[in-house]
Predict the structure.
Amino acid sequence: MITEDIGSAIRALEENKVVAIPTETVYGLAGNAYEDKALRKIFEIKKRPHYNPLIVHIKAAEALCDVAEDIPKKAVQLAEAFWPGALTLVLKKKSHIPNLVTAGKNTVAVRVPSHKLTLQLLDGLAFPLAAPSANPFGSISPTSAEHVFSYFKHHLDVILDGGACEKGLESTIIGFEGQTPILYRRGAIALEAIEKVIGKVAIHKNSADKSPEAPGMLSRHYAPNTRTILVENLTQFLKTTPNERIGVLSFQNKVENISVAHQEVLSPDGNLEEAARNLYAVLHRLDHLNLELIIAQKFPKKGLGLSINDKLRRAAEKRIKN
Ligand code: TXA
Ligand code: MG
């Protein structure tokens, strides 16, 4: 059921059910972060491997000490600067955080979301919410209640409808090695903005697909079913490509004088925030057009352009055949 009624979401969560919740980044698949029964359901519905830990959503920065300890000074500065907001901190966990949340690690990922409905929801609950993005593992993240419904249909009792997500990209994830901050996942807050607050941040080297520190870094992720490629120069590429039913995703301009089946421009004004907000909705749309190929243009290599390129690169990873 898609609803705006917080009461029904609260009741369902108190019964250890899984509820889809709106956040400013993407929709989440939420359950009681302290109850294994609810946590198991999240993994089951999402078909998510258990090695991939969940983000815990708390109602305010003051609640951070309920879930984490030994918090580095720079983490406190980031929380002060960006919460409520699209920043997730990976910190040493309190011992009572279930292993299902953290995939057995001694760290927990935590953030205060900034969506009004979800903050009200958290305020009405006696527990924080563990929530991955509300999409089946490996597919495009949802930025509307309808996206969530199209994935899970009636398997979810409650989809709390908070409208289209304001940011449209997942939260940026920062972890620490000692006191040194490390970027685990690019997301809705540009690295430049983070470095303005805490100085230089190291970039985590994405290694194997097996048990990465932040599996948002799994190479094939956020992927449409339609084959997708990412190119530097759209016009040049289109001149040589033989495919007939092509969809084009570009930043600012349409491609002229070349026949393609469908074109999507993410921000005619060249605004990276707007492009980020539209990205997943556009990928969802393109993926439902029965195209042979989606060709995406690389974004400017600064600010949220780097986050968008990162998501597009993963969408374009070749499918591993088995
Ligand atoms: O914007 C978001 O972050 C959304 C909304 C719903 O809050 N959530 C989200 O969750 O994107 P999910 O599960 O799709 O991605 C969470 C990422 C994963 O890449 C996971 O590996 C990483 O966070 N993560 C969680 N706990 C971690 C930990 N202890 N150490 C390192 N990475 C962690
Ligand atoms: Mg996800």
